[in-house]
Please model this.
Amino acid sequence: MTASEAPRVLVIGEALIDIVDGVEIVGGSPSNVALGLGRLGVPVDLLTALAHDQRGERIRAHLQESGVRVLPESFSLERTSTSRAKIRADGSADYEFDVTWQVPSVDVAHYDVVHVGSAGCFLEPGASTVLDLICAARQAGARITFDPNVRPALSGPSDPASRAERIARTSTAVKLSDEDARALYPGATLEGVAARLHEFGVELVAITRGGDGSLLSTQVGTASVSAPRVDVVDTVGAGDTYMAALVASLLVEKDWSLDSDGLVRLGEFCARAAAMTVGRSGADLPTCKELGLRRSERESTASANS
Model:
Protein backbone atom coordinates (compact mmCIF):
# COMPACT_ATOMS: atom_id res chain seq x y z
CA MET A 1 0.00 0.00 0.00
CA THR A 2 1.49 3.33 -1.06
CA ALA A 3 1.13 6.57 0.89
CA SER A 4 -1.40 7.83 -1.68
CA GLU A 5 -3.51 4.68 -1.21
CA ALA A 6 -3.39 4.71 2.59
CA PRO A 7 -6.81 4.88 4.26
CA ARG A 8 -7.67 8.29 5.64
CA VAL A 9 -8.81 8.57 9.25
CA LEU A 10 -10.77 11.33 10.94
CA VAL A 11 -10.71 11.56 14.73
CA ILE A 12 -13.42 13.66 16.37
CA GLY A 13 -13.14 14.67 20.01
CA GLU A 14 -11.63 16.89 22.64
CA ALA A 15 -8.08 18.20 22.75
CA LEU A 16 -7.03 20.10 25.84
CA ILE A 17 -4.19 20.97 28.16
CA ASP A 18 -3.62 18.66 31.14
CA ILE A 19 -2.13 20.50 34.10
CA VAL A 20 -0.14 18.06 36.27
CA ASP A 21 1.60 19.53 39.34
CA GLY A 22 1.68 22.89 37.60
CA VAL A 23 3.16 21.47 34.38
CA GLU A 24 1.05 21.85 31.22
CA ILE A 25 0.86 18.84 28.89
CA VAL A 26 -1.13 18.37 25.69
CA GLY A 27 -3.93 15.86 26.33
CA GLY A 28 -7.47 14.75 25.64
CA SER A 29 -8.29 11.13 24.79
CA PRO A 30 -9.26 11.58 21.11
CA SER A 31 -6.34 13.96 20.62
CA ASN A 32 -4.03 11.28 22.01
CA VAL A 33 -5.53 8.69 19.65
CA ALA A 34 -4.87 11.00 16.69
CA LEU A 35 -1.33 11.55 17.95
CA GLY A 36 -0.77 7.80 18.22
CA LEU A 37 -2.12 7.19 14.72
CA GLY A 38 0.14 9.87 13.31
CA ARG A 39 3.16 8.32 15.01
CA LEU A 40 2.19 4.96 13.50
CA GLY A 41 2.24 6.43 10.01
CA VAL A 42 -1.51 6.75 9.50
CA PRO A 43 -2.80 9.79 7.57
CA VAL A 44 -5.08 11.36 10.17
CA ASP A 45 -7.14 14.52 10.61
CA LEU A 46 -8.53 15.79 13.92
CA LEU A 47 -11.75 17.73 14.39
CA THR A 48 -11.71 19.24 17.87
CA ALA A 49 -12.49 22.46 19.73
CA LEU A 50 -9.67 24.95 20.31
CA ALA A 51 -9.08 28.67 20.63
CA HIS A 52 -6.53 30.79 18.83
CA ASP A 53 -4.68 31.25 22.13
CA GLN A 54 -1.27 30.10 23.30
CA ARG A 55 -2.59 26.74 24.51
CA GLY A 56 -4.56 26.08 21.34
CA GLU A 57 -1.58 26.84 19.12
CA ARG A 58 0.61 24.64 21.30
CA ILE A 59 -1.81 21.73 20.85
CA ARG A 60 -1.86 22.18 17.08
CA ALA A 61 1.93 22.34 16.87
CA HIS A 62 2.33 19.26 19.09
CA LEU A 63 -0.02 17.22 16.92
CA GLN A 64 1.43 18.47 13.64
CA GLU A 65 4.88 17.30 14.74
CA SER A 66 3.50 13.75 14.69
CA GLY A 67 1.74 14.09 11.35
CA VAL A 68 -1.77 15.02 12.53
CA ARG A 69 -3.67 17.66 10.55
CA VAL A 70 -5.89 19.71 12.84
CA LEU A 71 -8.87 20.81 10.77
CA PRO A 72 -9.18 24.61 10.64
CA GLU A 73 -12.84 24.32 11.67
CA SER A 74 -11.55 23.18 15.07
CA PHE A 75 -10.79 26.74 16.15
CA SER A 76 -14.21 27.64 17.53
CA LEU A 77 -13.59 28.58 21.18
CA GLU A 78 -12.64 31.75 23.00
CA ARG A 79 -10.46 29.79 25.44
CA THR A 80 -8.80 26.38 25.05
CA SER A 81 -10.07 23.76 27.50
CA THR A 82 -8.00 22.38 30.38
CA SER A 83 -8.01 19.61 32.95
CA ARG A 84 -6.08 19.27 36.20
CA ALA A 85 -4.68 15.80 36.74
CA LYS A 86 -3.52 14.36 40.05
CA ILE A 87 -1.41 11.21 39.79
CA ARG A 88 -2.12 8.56 42.44
CA ALA A 89 0.54 6.33 43.99
CA ASP A 90 -0.32 3.48 41.58
CA GLY A 91 0.21 5.70 38.54
CA SER A 92 -3.48 6.25 37.76
CA ALA A 93 -4.92 9.76 37.57
CA ASP A 94 -7.85 11.83 38.86
CA TYR A 95 -9.06 14.74 36.74
CA GLU A 96 -10.89 18.03 37.24
CA PHE A 97 -12.16 19.45 33.96
CA ASP A 98 -12.77 22.91 32.54
CA VAL A 99 -14.01 21.88 29.11
CA THR A 100 -16.18 23.53 26.49
CA TRP A 101 -17.19 21.21 23.67
CA GLN A 102 -18.67 22.43 20.40
CA VAL A 103 -17.82 21.47 16.83
CA PRO A 104 -19.20 22.43 13.43
CA SER A 105 -20.49 19.98 10.86
CA VAL A 106 -17.84 19.09 8.26
CA ASP A 107 -17.70 16.90 5.15
CA VAL A 108 -16.92 13.34 6.26
CA ALA A 109 -17.64 11.54 2.98
CA HIS A 110 -13.99 11.03 1.98
CA TYR A 111 -12.79 9.29 5.15
CA ASP A 112 -12.33 5.53 5.39
CA VAL A 113 -12.52 5.41 9.20
CA VAL A 114 -13.97 7.89 11.68
CA HIS A 115 -12.97 7.49 15.34
CA VAL A 116 -14.92 9.07 18.20
CA GLY A 117 -14.83 8.84 21.96
CA SER A 118 -14.72 10.35 25.42
CA ALA A 119 -16.34 13.68 26.30
CA GLY A 120 -16.93 14.52 22.66
CA CYS A 121 -19.64 11.85 22.55
CA PHE A 122 -21.47 12.93 25.69
CA LEU A 123 -20.97 16.64 26.38
CA GLU A 124 -23.38 19.02 24.67
CA PRO A 125 -23.70 20.97 22.50
CA GLY A 126 -21.01 19.17 20.52
CA ALA A 127 -22.15 15.60 21.27
CA SER A 128 -25.23 15.89 19.05
CA THR A 129 -23.08 17.11 16.16
CA VAL A 130 -20.70 14.18 16.67
CA LEU A 131 -23.59 11.73 16.43
CA ASP A 132 -24.81 13.37 13.22
CA LEU A 133 -21.30 13.23 11.74
CA ILE A 134 -20.73 9.55 12.42
CA CYS A 135 -24.17 8.66 11.05
CA ALA A 136 -23.30 10.58 7.86
CA ALA A 137 -19.89 8.91 7.67
CA ARG A 138 -21.39 5.46 8.09
CA GLN A 139 -23.91 6.16 5.33
CA ALA A 140 -21.01 7.21 3.10
CA GLY A 141 -19.31 3.86 3.69
CA ALA A 142 -16.84 4.67 6.46
CA ARG A 143 -16.10 2.35 9.34
CA ILE A 144 -16.69 3.84 12.79
CA THR A 145 -14.52 3.12 15.82
CA PHE A 146 -15.62 4.12 19.30
CA ASP A 147 -13.97 4.37 22.73
CA PRO A 148 -16.54 5.66 25.26
CA ASN A 149 -13.90 6.47 27.90
CA VAL A 150 -16.73 7.36 30.26
CA ARG A 151 -16.01 10.25 32.61
CA PRO A 152 -19.02 11.18 34.77
CA ALA A 153 -17.71 14.73 35.21
CA LEU A 154 -17.90 15.21 31.43
CA SER A 155 -21.15 13.42 30.65
CA GLY A 156 -23.40 16.37 31.36
CA PRO A 157 -27.08 15.70 32.09
CA SER A 158 -27.35 13.00 29.42
CA ASP A 159 -27.58 9.27 30.10
CA PRO A 160 -24.11 7.94 29.14
CA ALA A 161 -25.34 4.37 28.60
CA SER A 162 -28.10 5.45 26.22
CA ARG A 163 -25.79 7.68 24.20
CA ALA A 164 -23.04 5.03 24.15
CA GLU A 165 -25.51 2.48 22.78
CA ARG A 166 -26.68 4.86 20.04
CA ILE A 167 -23.08 5.31 18.92
CA ALA A 168 -22.29 1.60 19.26
CA ARG A 169 -25.14 0.80 16.86
CA THR A 170 -23.26 2.76 14.16
CA SER A 171 -19.84 1.35 15.09
CA THR A 172 -17.73 -1.32 13.45
CA ALA A 173 -15.29 -1.64 16.36
CA VAL A 174 -15.63 -0.62 20.01
CA LYS A 175 -12.82 -0.47 22.56
CA LEU A 176 -13.70 0.13 26.20
CA SER A 177 -12.04 -0.37 29.55
CA ASP A 178 -13.36 -2.66 32.25
CA GLU A 179 -14.24 0.53 34.17
CA ASP A 180 -16.31 1.71 31.19
CA ALA A 181 -18.02 -1.67 31.06
CA ARG A 182 -18.98 -1.48 34.73
CA ALA A 183 -20.21 2.11 34.37
CA LEU A 184 -22.37 1.34 31.34
CA TYR A 185 -23.57 -2.14 32.35
CA PRO A 186 -23.39 -2.55 36.13
CA GLY A 187 -23.26 -6.19 37.18
CA ALA A 188 -22.60 -7.58 33.70
CA THR A 189 -19.60 -9.76 32.96
CA LEU A 190 -17.09 -8.52 30.41
CA GLU A 191 -18.12 -11.38 28.13
CA GLY A 192 -21.73 -10.28 28.55
CA VAL A 193 -20.87 -6.70 27.62
CA ALA A 194 -19.07 -7.91 24.49
CA ALA A 195 -22.05 -10.07 23.53
CA ARG A 196 -24.43 -7.12 23.96
CA LEU A 197 -22.29 -4.94 21.71
CA HIS A 198 -22.21 -7.66 19.06
CA GLU A 199 -26.02 -7.69 19.18
CA PHE A 200 -25.89 -4.01 18.15
CA GLY A 201 -23.89 -4.99 15.05
CA VAL A 202 -20.39 -4.20 16.35
CA GLU A 203 -17.96 -6.49 14.51
CA LEU A 204 -15.03 -6.27 16.93
CA VAL A 205 -15.01 -5.54 20.67
CA ALA A 206 -11.87 -5.00 22.76
CA ILE A 207 -12.13 -4.60 26.54
CA THR A 208 -8.95 -3.56 28.33
CA ARG A 209 -8.26 -4.63 31.91
CA GLY A 210 -5.16 -2.62 32.81
CA GLY A 211 -2.38 -4.86 34.06
CA ASP A 212 -4.64 -7.88 33.62
CA GLY A 213 -4.56 -7.61 29.84
CA SER A 214 -7.49 -7.43 27.44
CA LEU A 215 -10.41 -9.41 26.08
CA LEU A 216 -11.07 -9.27 22.34
CA SER A 217 -14.15 -10.63 20.64
CA THR A 218 -15.82 -10.96 17.26
CA GLN A 219 -18.71 -13.11 16.09
CA VAL A 220 -16.23 -15.80 15.03
CA GLY A 221 -13.60 -15.76 17.76
CA THR A 222 -12.46 -14.58 21.17
CA ALA A 223 -9.07 -14.06 22.77
CA SER A 224 -7.74 -13.17 26.21
CA VAL A 225 -4.40 -11.41 25.92
CA SER A 226 -1.99 -10.79 28.80
CA ALA A 227 -0.39 -7.41 29.40
CA PRO A 228 3.42 -7.26 29.25
CA ARG A 229 5.13 -6.77 32.59
CA VAL A 230 6.39 -3.22 32.90
CA ASP A 231 7.46 -0.78 35.60
CA VAL A 232 4.53 1.65 35.55
CA VAL A 233 5.44 5.34 35.64
CA ASP A 234 1.86 6.49 35.04
CA THR A 235 -1.13 5.20 33.09
CA VAL A 236 -1.94 8.47 31.28
CA GLY A 237 -2.57 7.68 27.62
CA ALA A 238 -2.44 3.88 27.99
CA GLY A 239 -5.98 3.30 26.71
CA ASP A 240 -5.50 5.85 23.94
CA THR A 241 -2.33 4.05 22.83
CA TYR A 242 -4.21 0.76 22.71
CA MET A 243 -6.96 2.41 20.66
CA ALA A 244 -4.53 3.98 18.20
CA ALA A 245 -2.71 0.68 17.74
CA LEU A 246 -6.05 -1.08 17.26
CA VAL A 247 -7.21 1.31 14.53
CA ALA A 248 -3.83 1.32 12.79
CA SER A 249 -3.83 -2.47 12.67
CA LEU A 250 -7.45 -2.80 11.54
CA LEU A 251 -6.91 -0.39 8.64
CA VAL A 252 -5.19 -3.16 6.68
CA GLU A 253 -7.99 -5.68 7.31
CA LYS A 254 -10.82 -6.01 4.79
CA ASP A 255 -12.82 -8.06 7.29
CA TRP A 256 -12.78 -6.93 10.92
CA SER A 257 -14.43 -10.15 12.15
CA LEU A 258 -11.09 -11.76 12.97
CA ASP A 259 -10.75 -15.31 14.25
CA SER A 260 -9.15 -16.13 17.59
CA ASP A 261 -5.61 -16.32 16.23
CA GLY A 262 -6.00 -12.97 14.53
CA LEU A 263 -7.36 -11.44 17.72
CA VAL A 264 -4.38 -12.72 19.71
CA ARG A 265 -1.93 -11.08 17.29
CA LEU A 266 -3.95 -7.87 17.30
CA GLY A 267 -4.25 -7.78 21.08
CA GLU A 268 -0.57 -8.51 21.64
CA PHE A 269 0.47 -5.64 19.39
CA CYS A 270 -1.92 -3.20 21.08
CA ALA A 271 -0.77 -4.34 24.53
CA ARG A 272 2.88 -3.91 23.61
CA ALA A 273 2.23 -0.37 22.42
CA ALA A 274 0.28 0.51 25.58
CA ALA A 275 3.01 -0.96 27.80
CA MET A 276 5.53 1.36 26.20
CA THR A 277 3.38 4.38 27.10
CA VAL A 278 2.83 3.42 30.76
CA GLY A 279 6.56 2.89 31.15
CA ARG A 280 7.22 6.60 30.74
CA SER A 281 5.72 9.84 31.98
CA GLY A 282 2.71 11.42 30.29
CA ALA A 283 0.86 10.48 27.12
CA ASP A 284 4.06 9.84 25.15
CA LEU A 285 2.74 7.37 22.60
CA PRO A 286 5.20 5.15 20.70
CA THR A 287 6.30 5.56 17.11
CA CYS A 288 6.66 2.92 14.40
CA LYS A 289 10.41 2.91 14.98
CA GLU A 290 10.03 2.29 18.71
CA LEU A 291 7.69 -0.62 18.01
CA GLY A 292 10.09 -2.08 15.47
CA LEU A 293 7.92 -1.22 12.47
CA ARG A 294 8.69 0.61 9.27
CA ARG A 295 6.04 3.22 8.50
CA SER A 296 5.54 1.78 5.01
CA GLU A 297 5.07 -1.71 6.44
CA ARG A 298 2.55 -1.06 9.18
CA GLU A 299 0.35 -3.75 7.66
CA SER A 300 2.70 -6.43 9.03
CA THR A 301 1.17 -5.90 12.47
CA ALA A 302 -2.06 -7.55 11.41
CA SER A 303 -1.92 -8.97 7.89
CA ALA A 304 -0.57 -12.32 9.01
CA ASN A 305 -4.14 -13.47 9.55
CA SER A 306 -5.53 -12.28 6.23
